[in-house]
Structure formats: C-alpha cells, structure tokens
C-alpha cells in the first residue's frame, strides 16, 4: 500500500510577497537566455551559492542584480504565473503581491510593461489557479521622495489595477516620514497603505508608519516588540503585521527561528500573519514558513489555524468574500 498522503496545507492568504523575490534561479537563467542578458554567474549552482546573506542590504544587492533578466511583458507574466502555481500548492487562496516599479523603470522597462504583464497573470489566476489577488505598488525608500511622487503620478492611469501602496528596500536611514506626501496622495486616490517598518529599523519607524503615513498594515514589524506602548497600540487597533519568519532568519534580523518573537506577538494579542517575503531567496513559500515556525516554535494546530485565519482577517477583501474564508 502507498504511504499516507501528506495533509493538505491550510488555506491561507499571502500578504507579504515581493513578486521579484519569487524569481527562482531556474527561471532567471531561462529569461537571461531568452533576452540575451548575461548574468554574472555561470551556472545555477554558482548562483545558488550567492544566496548567503549577512543583512538586508546584502540580499537587496542580489535581488536587484537578478532583475536584469526581467525585460518584457511576457517575463513579468511568466514570473507571476510561476509564483501562483507554487502558491496554490502551498494552500494560498488569496495573494496580495508587491512589485517595485522603480527597480524596472530605472532599467528602461516601461511601467506599463510591468503592470500589464503582472495583470495578465493575475487576471487569469482565479480560473487557472483558484487564487484571488491584489497588487501593491511599493516605493523604494532608498530612492528620493520626489522619485516616489513621480512614480505615483506615472501610475495614475493604472490605479484601477492597484489596491495599495507600500514602502520597501533599505530601511535604516529612510524613515517613513520621508514619504508623507506620496502616501497622502495615495490615500486621497482611495488606495490602502502599507509599509515595511521595524524589520531592521527601530520601533520609531513603526510609529511613523502609523501616525504619519496612516498605514492599514505593517510589513514585518518584529522590532515593535522592543516598545511596550507600541505593542499596546497595535493590539488595541488590531493593526495587522505581516511577519516573514524565514526571511528574518536569512537576513539575520533574528538569530535563530527558535528565538523568533512570533509566539510573544500572538500572546500580546497582535494580529500577526505568517508570510514568505522573497521565497526564491529565503528557502520557502507560504506553507514552508508555516511548517518552519510550527517545528521551531512548537506551535499547536489551533495556533496554526489562528495564523491562517488572521491572514484572511488582515487581507484587503470585501466582507462577503472574507466571510467565506473565515
Ligand atoms: N524588498 C524585497 N524584500 C524586502 C525586505 N524583506 N525588506 C525590505 N525590502 C525588501
Ligand atoms: Zn518584504
């Protein structure tokens, strides 16, 4: 007789996923060849050996370098479709997907190419993969506030495809307050707002994201645990945090998964979700992160179900759809 089938992964929403961070070495080489782009790595193994990071910046260097292979609408489509295939196998039913427009327009790839390619894959996703999606446009915080404003204005014709704005890239030295103006415009335009804060940066950046940017969710936010008043605020407002455990370990935000503050965050009454960030780089997609925290932190089934349920509570879904998942 055959061995018992592995249990189906819990249905969940993925709320912290950079589409560029789903570029697997295999697809990177395929696209490099298709586009006549030369990568500074001869083989997949040589590339894989570059995936050892000391901090956020050391990862970002490789993340931006590999984007050189993304040139055409088809490339962005194929990237997103490959992600959606993997996501469904990990129990993902709804995915809110970040993209970094400035990382592409700076290389001469038009914004419409990026958005149209991604949108073609996302529009097909309910039928093709059984996944609903949202698109979140992120500003690179290590670029200027003016560049973020110009990016937002360039995206105006596409806002019907964009649910929220976000803030990512090198955190320390680039506080949320730098982006006050563009977030005000985004809110005026009816968009939701999120921001990476409290990953490498201090709790003060989480306060700024809340009070100055008016965010609806905090991405990462693990360093909030250093500030009792902040934890109380986040708990009282049930302001969601999209935590990325495998990312935190690979980027040395946390020394060891066994020391991850996830259980303390749950105990403090925070609305925490578990997500994959840049799964091609950090060794795991959505359910891989669930499994990793289950094993390292000895989480019971009820806690895992709470985390899955939180992902739908924190998602940008209409209430009728949310009810179906809860
Ligand atoms: N861009 C892609 N992944 C990121 C992360 N974990 N933090 C900040 N910027 C990012
Ligand atoms: Zn991220």
Structural summary, described in words:
There is one protein chain. With 326 residues, the protein is α/β, with parallel strands linked by helices. The protein has a single domain, classed as TIM Barrel (Alpha-Beta Barrel), CATH 3.20.20. The chain has 16 helices and eight strands. The protein has helices at 25-35, 44-48, 56-66, 73-89, 101-105, 111-129, 145-155, 180-188, 203-211, 228-237, 245-250, 262-267, 279-282, 286-297, 301-313, 319-325; strands at 12-18, 92-99, 132-140, 164-168, 192-197, 217-220, 241-243, 272-274. Strands 1-2-3-4-5-6-7-8 form an eight-stranded parallel β-sheet. The longest helix is centred in the middle third of the chain and has 19 residues, at 111-129. The radius of gyration is 19 Å and the shape is globular. The mean pLDDT is 97. Bound molecules: adenine (ADE) and zinc ion. Residues 18, 21, 56, 63, 168-169, 196, 199, 247, 277-278 line the site of adenine.
Please name the CATH topology: TIM Barrel
Q: Tell me the number of helical segments per DSSP (H or I, 4 or more residues long).
A: 16
Coarse morphology = globular
Largest sheet: 8 strands, parallel
How many structurally independent domains? 1
CATH homology group: Metal-dependent hydrolases
- Tally of strands: 8
Biggest sheet, spatial arrangement of strands: 1-2-3-4-5-6-7-8
Strand content: 5-15%
Provide mean pLDDT, rounded. 97
CATH class reads Alpha Beta
CATH architecture: Alpha-Beta Barrel
The share of residues in helices is 40-55%
Bound molecules: adenine, zinc ion
Pairing-aware structural class of the strands and helices? alpha/beta
Q: Tell me the span between the first and last alpha carbons.
A: 36 Å
User: What is the H/E order?
Assistant: EHHHHEHHEHEHEHEHEHHEHHHH
What does the radius of gyration come to? Answer: 19 Å
**Parts with pLDDT < 50 across at least 5 consecutive residues:** none
Site (Important for catalytic activity): 220
Organism: Streptomyces catenulae
InterPro entries: A_deaminase_dom, ADE, Ado/ade_deaminase, Metal_Hydrolase
Family: Belongs to the metallo-dependent hydrolases superfamily. Adenosine and AMP deaminases family. Adenine deaminase type 2 subfamily.
